Inverse folding.
């Protein structure tokens, strides 16, 4: 007998263990496997954009918290003893049994909120006795696993609210256009009664019944002292919404980007400023009204907080219709950079002491291994100060600077400071790297400008920190909820993407002083319009800004920065179609200044004087003055500029007593020679320089004086040494001509032209001569009236 009793006890214990185990595993770890919408909100939880879930429902991701008013309303309506039971309510079950017996049908289910969560988990299976028992068991298990607030959160996320709207958060935005924590009492009450029978009672059906149910709940809340009489009256006076509202679509391209980068089916709290995003979109819409008249349909803009790296405005494109590629996120699309990288080269040249801010740069026709860059205006200045060449975005001085700096070094510098689109070798780009030969994204380039500004800020915030390097790359982020994306890739040709802790030589980066001098040059408001002459931009703020235009008038860029913000603007057609007038100055710069007008603050960068030195420079050439420079100015320069050479253009010459002639000791007595310091440019530079600047040409030599003591008095503009020339045929089939051009410092000189030893003609004053050489190699020889000569070899293809 005892043995049987022990068996029974063991069997009972095993049964209990089995039942407890089954009870424990009866509920899966993940209750809901439904797909969710991807939701972007701003830093204050305002909805920016969302997409519909893959099953066609507006179902927002689960939240940890539930609106207090909705929580109060749903508990009062569905489960008044919610906080006191363990998943099932025995009192409600007794009441339901009595009601069902009396009505002889199932008229009351006694479902608690916990049981309704289970029913939603089981996809609303049939209301049978067996199913109800399962709900009882699983509801109890759910209570053991989750807190009451977590259960309410599960309910509010997965309850149906009519149509294809699932969950409280989606319902709040679809019906009221606001987040759940801003619900009024009337709105909370309406949403509390909706899930009770959403297919029969919703905004489009039985609206009066919906309002009556809402008002009864409001009355109940008033009786329970949840709201006073005035609140009750005001709540009942609120109308039921007419129709569901469209969800905001402020950042559709950022939403698409987040999904592509693996952030789908979650709520992403972004760094976007909702109000600023709206204002910026309004600015772009206004400008696009004008630009569309010129068949320009796309634009993009970024506004970045310099200090934190937060993206405040992200406009990947404007509304243009699918025909005009409005779905393209231009912010992340590689486009030809035009001139937008020139400030980086300018700063690098200053940083290495290869020039001073006003050092004259050559601006004359050049051909380098078949590459013949031209200025946008197709004009030449001969020689122009470096800062003015930057402001005016002259191409030839930039190419000459890059040739001196070396494009291989510049290529590595660009990768280090964050240009991630250089996917070919440096030799592939060559000198065209500075003129749009490479592509860049608005995301990368705005990040580079922001990081340069951060370097200046860090110089004063962190004493001793004076170089632009990896530590200045705060990750420029568009989200603060675990989805951070760098504005730059910290790359170098040797290592690719650099990991945290990787050391890069500081010699490849930029000093605070060189960046300051660059920004100081770029704050000028008076800029040349590519097609309209000089143009003045009005701004109450100091902004360092630069425009860029790609070849073929396909891309207009404008980048601006101050100590607080960096703004990037791109304008063009996403399909790459060029348009007349599609230039950075004409299309993107006006948008840039209007965006800066939305931003607070009027500060400017402090001068990093400890990294700079005030020196004398030659007024004419911008070099350090030589003994022959008669007029000097003073200016702040990067300390590396102290090693730059003295002025090469001021030289001492000797004049006759009447100052009309040049003389020397071989043809004039010493006591009759007058020394004079003269500003002398190379002949080709002088030829163009004197057109727009005050320039005194060298006086001619006095009769009988040997001019051979002074060389370099004339030069060939075209062709340069070893130029390869293609001469197209004319329409009638004959070979065309090539026009050769020379310049001479003596306006009265005669030049005699020879090709391959054969005399072809002479020129005076304007030294242009058209020739039609046969294909092959040739030698051109020029001899002036004083016997000086020039020889150039060229090849006709």
């Amino acid at each position: 007998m005892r043995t049987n009793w022990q068996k029974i006890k063991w069997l009972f214990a095993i049964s209990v263990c089995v039942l407890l185990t089954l009870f424990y595993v009866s509920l899966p770890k993940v209750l809901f496997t439904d797909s969710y919408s991807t939701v972007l909100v701003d830093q204050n939880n305002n909805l920016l954009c969302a997409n519909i879930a893959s099953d066609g429902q507006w179902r927002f991701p689960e939240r940890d918290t539930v609106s207090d008013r909705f929580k109060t309303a749903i508990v009062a309506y569905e489960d008044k003893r919610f906080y006191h039971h363990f998943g099932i309510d025995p009192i409600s079950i007794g009441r339901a049994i009595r009601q069902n017996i009396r009505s002889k049908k199932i008229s009351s289910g006694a479902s608690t909120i916990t049981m309704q969560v289970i029913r939603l988990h089981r996809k609303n299976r049939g209301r049978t006795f067996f199913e109800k028992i399962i709900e009882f068991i699983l509801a109890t298990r759910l209570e053991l696993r989750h807190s009451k607030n977590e259960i309410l959160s599960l309910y509010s996320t997965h309850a149906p609210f009519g149509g294809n709207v699932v969950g409280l958060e989606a319902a709040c935005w679809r019906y009221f256009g606001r987040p759940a924590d801003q619900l009024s009492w009337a709105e909370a009450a309406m949403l509390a009664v909706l899930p009770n029978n959403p297919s029969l009672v919703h905004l489009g059906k039985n609206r009066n019944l919906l309002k009556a149910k809402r008002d009864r709940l409001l009355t109940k809340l008033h009786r329970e002292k949840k709201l006073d009489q005035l609140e009750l009256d005001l709540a009942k006076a609120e109308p039921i919404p007419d129709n569901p509202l469209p969800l905001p679509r402020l950042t559709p391209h950022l939403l698409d980007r987040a999904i592509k980068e693996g952030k789908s089916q979650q709520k992403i709290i972004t760094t976007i400023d909702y109000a600023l995003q709206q204002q910026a979109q309004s600015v772009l819409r206004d400008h696009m009204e004008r630009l569309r008249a010129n068949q320009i349909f796309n634009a993009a803009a970024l506004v970045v907080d310099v200090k934190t790296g937060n993206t405040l405005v992200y406009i990947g494109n404007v509304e243009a219709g699918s025909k005009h590629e409005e779905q393209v996120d231009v912010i992340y699309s590689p486009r030809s950079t035009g001139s937008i990288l020139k400030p980086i080269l300018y700063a690098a040249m200053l940083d290495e002491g290869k020039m001073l801010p006003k050092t004259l740069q050559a601006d004359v026709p050049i051909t380098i291994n078949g590459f013949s860059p031209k200025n946008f205006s197709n004009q030449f200045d001969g020689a122009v100060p470096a800062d003015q060449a930057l402001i005016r975005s002259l191409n030839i001085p930039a190419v000459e600077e890059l040739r001196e700096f070396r494009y291989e070094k510049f290529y590595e510098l660009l990768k280090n400071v964050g240009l991630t689109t250089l996917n070919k070798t440096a030799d592939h780009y060559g000198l065209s790297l500075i003129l749009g030969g490479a592509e860049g994204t608005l995301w990368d380039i705005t990040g580079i400008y922001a990081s340069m500004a951060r370097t200046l800020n860090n110089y004063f915030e962190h004493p001793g920190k004076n170089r632009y390097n990896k530590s200045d790359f705060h990750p420029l982020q568009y989200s603060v909820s675990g989805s951070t994306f760098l504005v730059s890739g910290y790359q170098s040709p040797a290592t690719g993407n650099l990991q945290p802790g990787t050391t890069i030589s500081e010699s490849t980066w930029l000093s605070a002083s060189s960046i300051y001098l660059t920004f100081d040059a770029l704050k000028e408001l008076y800029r040349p319009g590519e097609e309209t002459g000089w143009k003045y931009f009005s701004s109450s703020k100091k902004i360092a800004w630069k425009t860029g235009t790609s070849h073929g008038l396909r891309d207009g860029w404008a980048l601006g920065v101050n100590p607080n913000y960096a703004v990037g603007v791109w304008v063009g057609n996403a399909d790459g179609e060029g348009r007349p007038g599609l230039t950075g100055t004409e299309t993107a710069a006006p948008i840039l200044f209007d965006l800066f007008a939305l931003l607070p603050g009027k500060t400017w960068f402090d001068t990093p004087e400890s990294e700079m030195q005030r020196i004398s420079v030659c007024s004419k050439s911008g070099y350090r003055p030589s003994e022959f420079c008669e007029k000097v100015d003073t200016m702040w320069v990067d300390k590396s500029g102290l090693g730059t050479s003295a002025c090469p253009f001021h030289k001492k010459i000797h004049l006759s007593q009447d100052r009309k002639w040049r003389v020397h000791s071989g043809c004039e007595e010493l006591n009759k020679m007058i020394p004079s310091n003269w500003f002398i440019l190379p002949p080709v530079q002088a030829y163009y320089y004197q057109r727009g600047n005050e320039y005194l040409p060298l006086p001619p030599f006095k009769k009988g004086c040997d001019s051979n003591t002074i060389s370099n008095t004339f030069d060939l503009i075209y062709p340069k040494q070893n130029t390869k020339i293609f001469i197209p045929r004319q329409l009638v089939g004959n070979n065309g001509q090539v026009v050769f051009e020379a310049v001479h410092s003596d306006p009265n000189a005669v030049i005699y032209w020879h090709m391959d030893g054969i005399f072809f003609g002479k020129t005076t004053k304007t030294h242009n001569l058209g020739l039609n050489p046969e294909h092959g190699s040739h030698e051109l020889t020029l001899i002036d009236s004083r016997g000086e000569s020039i020889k150039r070899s060229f090849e006709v293809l």
Summary: The mean pLDDT is 83. Residues 285 and 318 are 7 Å apart (CA to CA).
